[in-house]
Specification:
The structure is a single chain. This protein is mainly alpha-helical and 321 residues long. The chain has 14 helices and no strands. Helix 1 crosses helix 4 and helix 5 packs antiparallel against helix 12. The longest helix is centred in the first third of the chain and has 27 residues. The chain is globular, with a radius of gyration of 19 Å. It starts with a helix and ends with a helix. The mean pLDDT is 85.
Length: 321
Amino acid sequence: MSSNARGAILALAAMGVFATHDVVIKYLGGFYAPFQTVFFAALLSFPVLTVALLTDAEADNLRPRHKGWNAVRTVLSVITSASAFYAFATLPLAQVYAILFSAPLVITILAIPMLGEKVRARRWAAVVVGLAGVMIVLRPGQSELTLGHAAALIAALANSIASIIVRKVGKDERSIVLLMYPLIGSFVAMGLALPFVYVPMPVTHLGLMAVISVFGIGASWLLILAYRAAEAVVVAPMQYSQIIWATGYGYLLFDERLDSATVIGAAIIIGSGLYIVFRESRTGASRHKPVLETRGRDEAVTTLRPGLLQRLILARRKRAG
């Protein structure tokens, strides 16, 4: 088996685990406010941060070098987590994914002012077509737009801005700093909201909270292995396989049916995203390759960015060697 084929299979497995992670979020969303779910997911992710701190022997402090950008990214990560959790709890899974898949389109636009990226006519056309696909999914004026739709759009936008910030300052910041502050920010912000929404939890549901953290970290690890094995242009498109998982899970577990608008809109969004990915992979077509180099599904607290985890692992191996 070629390395690219192995990487594609690992990425598909990662997306399957991510989709299962989201199913658990959706299930718990029927019992608890997103603030409570995010709080416990963040709390149960702290052991990973502790291990990362203990194994990171780089001689430096934990203060960010770009305090302003890191503060903004932390706030955006908190918003992404709460918004995405709410969207999964209230909307059909496939519809949430269709909206979240617009993130590469937004990243392409934001890369212009934030990274100095030049976007030529063809990628602009792909962005416009993709955004038209989002409008088809939302169907303003033809169907009721709910807070869940707004939450999914906010999650896609906040995630895109946070991803661009990582591309902008990530090379100057320690990976542990980039991992730590969003996690602490989510824990503190959701903790402040928790007294107003808290509902007592049985042990089984607390266990499912742990499952969310384990699945998020496990899927991130599989994605690291995928990017090690294959080219980014092979791995990145695998994220769209989540729509297949979402359709199956939605039908079997939540009695959800895909409507034609969601199918057509999702197809347009995915096609536009794929075009941008393959366009960026061409030599000389893109200076920064902001979509290809965003190696993570999102900035939610339970889905730690694989690129940052990979930097920690590589740094540890370099010191050991």
